[in-house]
Design goal:
heteropentamer, A alpha/beta (264), B mainly alpha (217), C alpha/beta (246), A: 6-stranded mixed β-sheet, 5-stranded antiparallel β-sheet, 11 strands, 36% helix, B: 217 residues, mainly alpha, MetI-like fold, 8 helices, 79% helix, flat, binds adenosine-5'-triphosphate, binds magnesium ion
């Protein structure tokens, strides 16, 4: 099962390791061999033009999409591997669920459960998935709500919240499952400019607490200030991957340069 | 007025039959319809096709024919053949028929839930069954209340079809009195009964809709 | 409860208490219908109860859709058809009959104000009947009349036909005399019965073709009741006179 | 097989009656339903209430009673009283009844169009009538196709109710032969006829839905 | 009818003149006396925090909402006036339609007609409202589409367009009615950052052609560079109204200053 690809792994097991991911939708190849290694506590920002495959990459990592080739390991455990013959194999369903349990994801459109109150959104998965008792999870959920500044919205329904509040609930909901890695797919791009700030602030706090995060974003300021590394993707490939300040200061690749000029 | 009081007992008895058919049909066809809807959305193509065919057959032929078939012809069908008394036969026909209608309502409801809800549940680790039970179906209920309410109000009137098995529901009881006494006023009383039942149902569903209105989508 | 199939016990040996299910149209006054208390009553009901008593049988009455009577009988859902069932040659192919117990005429009813006086005047007129009733057969048997009338409208019951006669859309209806007279008595002065009719026929009790054992017992009990006057008493109760056919 | 060929003529004749009632009812009740829906959304409260009451009455009582009323009782009602022959009476009852159902479908469809569409039209100078005709209703049609399709398929089977006015639709023709010949095969043939009609309707509506699928919302 | 309020009008008739507009929704007073005068060819940017009444103000101008007090004149024609007794009176319906015909509006969510193609969206109103013939309006509509860079989308349905393309169609649709004034309510805030540029470019071109425009916007760069005057609204009142460069360089009011700091 643990068929390793050619490269040698670095000494400390990385939190997440993706090697040579390929993903095709029908005839279109959306990922053409994307690799990424994320260490504990790293914050990775992924930028790139629309359609470059950023969302698809994130979705493959957390098994919302299946790859056709490549290898994904989470904290040393293999989710999918490809042998030398090119055959791509996922592990058994139960194991997939355990491995993906180490990751949480925050979507552009929040995907909160509209029929549950804010608190119920937070405790649903710990109770249903982990089988914990309500009285055990509620205090933790309340603490998380306080952390994202929404203690008073405990009993509100999501529809009563502003976009920024919704997104902070979504973050708290993901945190309630105590993931080791958090994936964000454009968490602020559905928000009014005014509401973006509060979500970015929450994410910055998570970074300060050394949460491992992979963030697809259009917020260059956030990428520059918070990310340890920035990945620039284009056409289903990683074009450039360098420490944030370096990449913004002197983009190497002309495509990166063109993109950054357009954005700023 | 005296006359109306006089004919009330049989009409009330008929209403009892109507309500029995109504309640039992509803209680059985809703869960069966839900099961059919889930099968209709199954990954296994032959299952989908079989359920699709069943729904087509049930919605494509008159309930009266289905009832006559189950009552008269089913006993002679090999293997599954069974001779049902009139009331069970009527119930089986109603349940099989209405389950098909409810299945379509449920299917549409389930398909109207955005993919984001499934994805949100999946990344939290919920299994498909858990996602259905805890996330999707509770939202489906809210969305399908209006068509379910329609179908239910249709059912209360459709129950009168059991006359073909000569059971004395409200409408047949009224017709019986009309034929005995040769006057049409029992029809007026029966109409009032139906209106009252419809009204009660309408209020019941409005109450449910209000209950589910605590959250918006 | 009902037995799945009637016991084929030897005739005149009512020791084993059998039970029979009588199928009837409970909307067929005065032969069988529901009273104020929603109980099934009528001339045929009283006869059947008396017969059952004499035979030591349990009797239950099952309302059926009259148009499905053969299916009910042959599907063994009922054992006896007893509800002003006309004896016809066609039916004899499927049903075993007792000897006639009542003579019935297919009478012609018109409104009191109608100019129609004779059967021949039905030519070019619209006539109503109850669907599936022996009035249909009676008219069709009278080929000359059947051809002359403009349209034969088949209603699901006699009352709708009578009501349609009152609205004026029909010119006449043809109906079993026992039933027709019952309704006409309800609305004195509104309807009139012509002197001519569409023939005379007999009512009998029917069983399944192969149920000869039951038929034997029924026939015997009926004969006894005609002989000792019980049948006449019941007839007087419902029709005011003895019209039982001996 | 010979037997089936033998009984086909009366069944086909019955199908003709069924289709006549079906087509005429559809052609009249859809526009009437649309008019009722617009009145139901009127600004004038009494108009809204009157239409609401009408819809409640029509949906709350069995169509069979309505048909009997129009046929037998209407002639004796003062002022509006009129004696209709059987076919027109059946049509009037069906149209009045189905118009109520269509009205509710149209109302829901109209209300589902976002306010933005009205505002977009208003700032371009379109009047209310123009907005309805050119912007709202064309979009409503797409959205109500599924419930209209359901209602239409129900109608084709409901037509069999005209038996109470002594008309020979498909189902009654089949029952007549069953009684005459003492065999249930006419029911099977009738069921096949209904299935074919349903199939044609289903394909027709699928075709319409495809036609309207050229644009998404 | 032409009951004038106290102030004297300046010499040239302004394109649009709103005086002391009051608007209440139930118990909440959303506009508490807003006045604005717009000259021919002016570009007004309205900025302000969420809920300050910016949208409501625009909607009152074009009669999507009715005011409870105040006066609106468009090119010298009175839409609504309030007499000294405080009674507020709108002109007759037909006149309202004529007056509002001088204005066009572009919404945040485009409000394109989804059942019509791009071209049909443009020609619908000229044909239905003005009664023009199809062959007369199509060439003009095509020219407008070329102008906003969407000549090739002529026969596409709106659902097939990106947000930026939709908004440019919405602008072209408004222009097809040849309005003298164009109102924009946050025309780019439903768009991805990448798509915002193309819409702003189109609006800048209109400004260059001296179209009179009132634009509610969160795009400070646009307000600064294109607007002749910037209005800062807060709590249903105009707090500050000054030439763009002035207001951004040295906001007078502390609330304006706080708002601008938050935004930039
Ligand atoms: N389910 C799907 N089926 C078919 N094609 C898809 C699917 N999902 C994504 N694609 C295509 O894959 C390509 C990459 O999409 P993806 O969403 O990953 O891009 P992205 O970089 O996230 O872009 P954006 O910034 O617009 O979100 C696009 O061309 C998209 O159309
Ligand atoms: N139809 C309405 N009914 C009731 N209240 C309304 C209505 N429309 C707007 N409001 C209220 O009026 C106030 C001003 O709303 P408005 O939309 O004009 O603000 P805005 O400045 O455009 O804000 P934003 O930047 O969020 O669009 C808000 O408090 C809002 O809730
Ligand atoms: Mg994406
Ligand atoms: Mg606004």
């Amino acid at each position: 099962m643990q068929s390793m690809t050619n490269e040698a792994t670095p000494a400390p097991t990385p939190m997440l390791r993706a090697v040579d991911l390929h993903k095709r939708f029908g005839a279109i190849e959306v990922l053409k061999g994307v690799s990424l290694e994320v260490g504990r506590g790293e914050v990775i920002a992924i930028i790139g033009p629309s359609g470059s495959g950023k969302s698809t990459f994130l979705r493959c990592l957390i098994h919302l999409e299946t790859v056709q080739r490549g290898c994904i390991e989470v904290e040393g455990r293999t989710l999918v591997s490809t042998d030398t013959g090119g055959e791509c194999r996922y592990v058994a369903d139960a194991e997939i669920r355990t491995i993906c349990g180490a990751m949480g994801m925050v979507f552009q459109h929040f995907n909160l459960f509209p029929h549950l109150t804010v608190l119920e959104n937070l405790i649903e998965a710990p109770m249903t998935v982990k089988g914990l008792r309500r009285e055990d999870v509620v205090p933790k959920a309340e603490a998380l709500l306080a952390k994202v500044g929404l203690a008073d919205k405990r009993d509100a329904y999501p529809s009563r919240l502003s976009g920024g509040q919704k997104q902070r609930v979504a973050i708290a909901r993901a945190l309630a499952m105590e993931p080791d890695i958090l994936l964000f797919d454009e968490p602020t791009s559905a928000l009014d400019p005014e509401l973006t700030g509060e979500v970015l602030r929450t994410m910055r706090e998570l970074a300060d607490e050394h949460m491992t995060m992979i963030v697809v974003t259009h917020e260059m300021a956030f990428a520059r200030e918070v990310a340890s590394r920035v990945i620039f993707m284009d056409g289903g490939l990683v074009v450039e991957a360098r420490p944030a300040r370096e990449l913004f200061a002197s983009p190497e690749h002309p495509r990166t340069r063109a993109f950054l000029e357009n954005m700023l | 007025m005296d006359y109306v009081l006089n004919i009330l007992p049989p009409l009330i008895e008929g209403t009892g039959v109507t309500l029995q058919v109504f309640v039992i049909t509803l209680m059985l066809s809703v869960p069966l319809g839900l099961a059919l809807a889930l099968l209709r959305l199954s990954r296994i193509a032959p299952v989908r096709a079989a359920v699709g065919g069943y729904i087509w057959l049930m919605r494509g032929t008159p309930l009266m024919l289905q009832m006559l078939f189950i009552y008269f012809a089913l006993p002679f069908v090999p293997v599954i053949g069974v001779r049902l008394p009139d009331f069970p036969a009527a119930i089986v026909a109603f349940v099989l028929n209405y389950a098909a209608y409810f299945a379509e309502i449920f299917r549409a409801g389930i398909q109207s839930i955005e993919r984001g809800q499934y994805e949100g549940a999946k990344v939290l680790g919920l299994s498909y069954a858990q996602t259905m039970r805890r996330i999707v179906l509770p939202q489906v209920i809210k969305r399908i209340l209006p068509p379910v309410s329609n179908e239910t109000i249709t059912l209360i009137k459709d129950t009168s079809l059991i006359y073909v098995l000569a059971m004395n529901d409200l409408l047949r009881a009224a017709r019986g009195i009309v034929q005995r006494d040769f006057t049409t006023s029992p029809f007026v009383v029966a109409a009032a009964f139906y209106l009252i039942m419809t009204l009660v149902l309408t209020y019941g569903f409005q109450h449910l809709e209000k209950k589910y209105a605590v959250y918006d989508e | 409860g009902k037995s799945e199939a009637p016991q084929a016990a030897a005739p005149a040996a009512p020791a084993a208490p059998a039970s029979i299910v009588v199928g009837l149209d409970d909307h067929f006054p005065p032969m069988g219908f529901r009273d104020d208390k929603n109980e099934i009553v009528g001339f045929d009901i009283d006869l059947a109860k008396e017969v059952a008593k004499r035979l030591g049988m349990q009797v239950s009455f099952k309302p059926i859709d009259w148009s499905a009577k053969e299916a009910e009988l042959n599907g063994k859902r009922i054992d006896v058809l007893w509800n002003g069932l006309t004896i016809t040659e066609e039916r004899k192919a499927n049903i075993l009959f007792t000897t006639p117990y009542l003579e019935n005429h297919q009478i012609i009813v018109v409104t009191d104000k109608s100019p129609i006086k004779a059967k021949a005047e039905l030519a070019g007129k619209i006539v109503g009947v109850q669907d599936g009733s022996s009035a249909v057969d009676a008219i069709q048997k009278d080929e000359k009349a059947a051809k002359s009338i403009k349209e034969l409208k088949k209603f699901s019951d006699n009352v709708t036909a009578l009501m349609d006669l009152s609205t004026g859309r029909l010119d006449a209806i043809v109906v079993d005399e026992v039933v027709g007279r019952y309704y006409i008595a309800k609305k004195p002065g509104e309807y009139r019965v012509l002197d001519e009719n569409f023939g005379t026929e007999d009512y009998g009790v029917g069983t399944r073709k192969d149920d000869t054992a039951l038929m034997g017992k029924l026939q015997k009990a009926m004969d006894d009741m005609k002989a000792d006057g019980t049948a006449a008493t019941i007839s007087t109760r419902w029709f005011g006179k003895d019209i039982v056919k001996k």
